[in-house]
Amino acid sequence: MGAAAKIADQLTVPPPKVPRRFAVGASLLRAGVVAPEEMLTALSHQGREAGRLPDVLRSRGLVVERDLLGVDARNYGIRVLDLDRAHPDPRLIDAVGSQDCLRHGIVPWQTVGAVTVVATSRPAEFHHIRPMLEQRLGPVAVGIASPRAILAAIHACRGDQLARAAENRVAQAESCRNWPRLHQSPRAMAVLGLALAALALAPLATGLATLAFAILSLVCLTALKIAATVAALRAPPPGPTPASDAIPPVVSIIVALYNEADIAPRLVRRLARLDYPAELLDVILAVEAEDHVTLDALARAELPPWMRVVVVPEGKVKTKPRALNHAFDHARGAIVGVYDAEDAPDPDQLNRVVERFQRSGPEVACLQGVLDYYNPRTNWLSRCFTIEYAGWFRLILPGLARLGLVVPLGGTTLFFRREVLDRLGAWDAHNVTEDADLGIRLARHGYRTELIDTVTLEEANCRPMPWVKQRSRWIKGYMMTWVVHMRQPVQLWRQLGPKGFLGFQVLFLGTIAQFLLAPLLWSFLLLPFGLDHPLYAALPVAAVWVMFGAFFVSEATNILIGALGLGRTAHGLSLLWVLTLKVYYPLASLAAYKGLLELATRPFYWDKTTHGLFDPAVEAKD
Fold first, then answer.
1. Where does 138-202 have alpha helices with state H?
2. Most-buried pick from 25, 191, 615, 619 (CB within 10 A)?
């Protein structure tokens, strides 16, 4: 009989009678592992909060895993299992489900006779899931193993299965995972052929129709910006937050890292500034399996007990949302947040998020924080990026939320109710703007997103080519998101309502149209230089006045939003920089055409942004 079978056979025999089962705290005290005064402090924290005592003790560095395992094993009369010496049976994991194993901290290990031995890292909670396990496995016996050992065993046996699950969580009807390349889509080829035929056979009529659509989308988008800005400005100032007697929940934060050797140690220091109770903080660093650079950097860093690395197994795509989906199954919190690698959040951010969720109804499923930059003065591009974000996060997004319209989420400083994310399938692993797409899906299913007045500083991407690459990914994702959610326009109308549906069209289709058709509109700027324009000659006088009036109002609106948004920051940048946005936005059109080309040739390609290049101001404060 092998070692695994011997241990399993012993576990099938009823354990010797335990005279008295002590609580974990009492057992640790009796074993002399934790001093009485340290235990009193930990218990007082547990009494005020939602953390499990072992997690409180781990987060405060009062115990090591070996001590907890030994105490639990003696306390419950079970054995410690060595999962490295005898690996679990993959078929048993399949019977329970890999994701359920991760969620409950268990792994079915071996079967002896009719009994299946299950390793758990939470013996106190095992009786809650025993009925489920017996329904799927038959009679079970329990052993104990560390959370890390269980996690490693599941990944070793079923990493490929977990990778597929992370890629296919979202319902197919709301996912872009079946997006074909251009030559594989007869419908797209037909549309392209018709457009080229119209341009060849009736160039003037096609040009006028395109111009009319460009002007209409410009007018609608400008009107939406004005309405959102007015709604944001009319919002009452936030009042004092009433004290809450509710027990603070565990908050899980997921940070997806890829090729971040330099940023990883700084990220650890920045997140350590969060003043949320450490025993309620569950920070997951999701790192791709082949990213040895980042894994090595994190191995050298001194990670606090509340921060852990989750390795993302290789899959068909390599995107941030796939990493988030995989890490989501490991999260312990009732609230799940997302940060980027270079983020520096306000220290009190999590406290404010928890208070806001506790004061909100269940329909508020997501809170979006304000993003700003810690390197606004690096160069002209960083100044323009700062002004753009100031208007977007301090005026446009809050205004959209107040108007009851769809809120396209930013990729970081996002916080969700866990059960809602689970219900919606979390993130679409194939969408390169998974944040905006998730904002649409939340609205479609009746949930609301609200903005919360807490700031996260990050790094402005202020080198021209990396900026274009990043923006092309965003615009490509906008195109993909619009097409996916317009597959069934009648259903979308019913789910969002007329106002929400029209707002979605203006915000997404209007933005795409403006980026792609901006060169056509700019071509009219050649008229003052005496150059002829074929479309201008065909326009009636009234249409010319309407067109130039739309140009003027749009530019004035952009300048006003930029100035008002900048005034709500503490950067102290001169308002004269707002006037230079006219030169800044043409870069977005270049990015839009790059995104359109990628949409046709490699839709799921994630053009990675390099972080950690321009943050000396923050590092000086470290």
1. 147-167, 186-201
2. 615
Sign of CA dihedral 560, 565, 568, 574: negative
Helix 203-233 to helix 186-201 angle (10° resolution) is: 120
SS3 (DSSP) at 257 = strand
242 contacts 274 by C-beta, under 8 angstroms: no
Tens of pLDDT, residues 548-559? 999 999 999 999
Distance CA 88, CA 621 (A): 48
Q: What is the set of domains in the chain, with CATH numbers?
A: 3-167 (3.30.300.160), 243-517+606-621 (3.90.550.10)
Q: In one letter, which amino acid is 226?
A: I
Query: Residues 391, 393, 397, CA angle at the centre, nearest 5°?
Result: 100
SS3 per-residue string spanning 437-505: HHHHHHHHCCCEEEEEEEEEEECCCCCHHHHHHHHHHHHHHHHHHHHHHCCCHHHHHHHHHHHHHHHHH
d(CA 555, CA 143): 68
Q: Where are the beta strands (DSSP E) in 393-435?
A: 414-417
CA dihedral 435, 441, 443, 448 (to 10 degrees): -50
pLDDT for 47: 45
How far is the C-alpha of 232 from the C-alpha of 462, rounded, in Å? 28
What gap in Å lies between CA 99 and CA 86, rounded to an integer? 22
Structure tokens at 588: 């977005």
Of the candidates 173, 131, 153, which has an alpha carbon nearest to the alpha carbon of residue 84?
153
Distance CA 448, CA 203 (A): 45
DSSP H/E element including 514: helix 510-522
User: Residue 254's beta-bridge partner residues?
Assistant: 284, 338
Q: Which two tokens stand for residue 422?
A: 């689970």
312 within 8 A of 164, measured Cβ to Cβ: no
Place of tokens 């100032």: 237
Long-range contacts: 538-546, Cβ < 8 Å, 24+?
538/204, 538/208, 539/208, 546/215
Q: Cβ contacts of residue 561 below 8 Å, gap of 6+?
A: 225, 229, 391, 395, 396
Encoded amino acid at 58, one letter? R
Q: What region does 139 belong to: left with phi over 0, alpha with psi -120 to 50, or beta?
A: beta
- Which tokens go with 89? 């049976």
pTM of the full structure: 0.85
CB 551 within 8 A of CB 528: no
Q: Would you state the structure tokens that stand for residue 67, as one six-digit string?
A: 């001590």
Would you state the structure tokens that stand for residue 49, as one six-digit string?
């909060």
User: Running DSSP on this structure, what letter comes out for residue 244?
Assistant: -
Q: Which residues contact 602 (CB under 8 A, 6 or more apart)?
A: 181
Residue 504 has pLDDT above 50, yes or no: yes
Report helix, strand or coil for 380: helix
Closest to 25 measured CA to CA, from 44, 1, 5, 50:
44
pLDDT classification of 387: cutoffs 50, 70, 90: very high
Confidence of residue 151 (pLDDT cuts 50, 70, 90): confident
Note whether 609 and 469 are within 8 A (CB): yes
> Which helix (H) or strand (E) segment is 118 a member of?
strand 115-120
Distance, CA of 507 to CA of 585 (rounded, Å): 17
